[in-house]
Design the sequence.
């Protein structure tokens, strides 16, 4: 199981296929397997001639899972991606993040624009521009994750996070710590000044993140794609991976 160490944590990653590299960053309470392998995304990208580099974010999958919110604060989760690229001696790559991973990808796009040929922001809405659901919403999710009896959780959004996290076999206390962390640390306004091609791709029935119309309009030249499904099912649909492969073929062509 390949890992690298940062902040005394062991972070799991995979490298599969050959060709120009694309880095994949999964969503909250998911993993490499949940977002990318089981959905056929890794297979589609490697079949298209891409090398996939995917990370289990700290607190997820086969990576270390600290219970201290400070372990996830600021830009630490985004910085892990750059650290992995440096560890693997990858100077430049395409990048795709989904949900939480899209927030990480946005941070990287703003702070390390020269490291990425293209950036794909999946499963994210206009809240990316304003800081998302805010401290109260994050605290409600954290409390739902810690609840001794999930049936006692009354907030429907928080309850859905608890259900998904349990179904995926997560460390609930690590996920609660992530929700209580002060993540961010980048200027979202700079998304209006991208230096590479960007695609925003969302499920047409994704009520969790809502509309991404303003986000897509804020990023000059961004390709905006809606695919069947909601927040949990959109990345499972063949339309999602087909759109990603088509975008990469056009915006980051493989040189002969």
Sequence:
């Amino acid at each position: 199981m390949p890992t690298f160490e940062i902040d005394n944590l062991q972070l799991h990653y995979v490298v599969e296929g050959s060709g120009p590299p694309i880095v994949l960053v999964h969503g909250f309470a998911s993993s490499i397997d949940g977002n990318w392998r089981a959905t056929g995304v890794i297979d589609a990208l490697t079949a298209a001639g891409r090398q996939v580099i995917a990370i289990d974010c700290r607190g997820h999958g086969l990576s270390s899972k600290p219970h201290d919110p400070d372990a996830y604060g600021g830009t630490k989760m985004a910085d892990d991606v750059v650290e992995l690229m440096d560890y693997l001696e990858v100077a430049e790559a395409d990048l795709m993040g989904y949900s939480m991973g899209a927030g990480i990808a946005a941070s990287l796009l703003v702070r390390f624009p020269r490291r990425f040929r293209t950036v794909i922001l999946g499963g994210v809405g206009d809240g990316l521009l304003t800081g998302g659901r805010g401290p109260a919403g994050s605290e409600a999710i954290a409390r739902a994750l810690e609840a001794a009896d999930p049936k006692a959780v009354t907030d429907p959004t928080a309850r859905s996070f608890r259900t998904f996290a349990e179904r995926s076999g997560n460390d609930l206390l690590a996920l609660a710590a992530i929700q209580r962390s002060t993540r961010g640390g980048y200027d979202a306004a700079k998304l209006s000044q991208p230096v590479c091609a960007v695609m925003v791709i969302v499920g047409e029935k994704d009520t969790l993140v809502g509309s991404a119309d303003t986000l897509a309009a804020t990023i000059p030249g961004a390709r905006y794609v809606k695919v069947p499904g909601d927040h949990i099912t959109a990345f499972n649909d063949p339309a999602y991976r087909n759109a990603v492969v088509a975008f990469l073929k056009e915006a980051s062509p493989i040189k002969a």
Notes: The first helix runs from residue 32 to 37. Residues 3-131+183-251 form a domain with the Rossmann fold fold (CATH 3.40.50.1820).
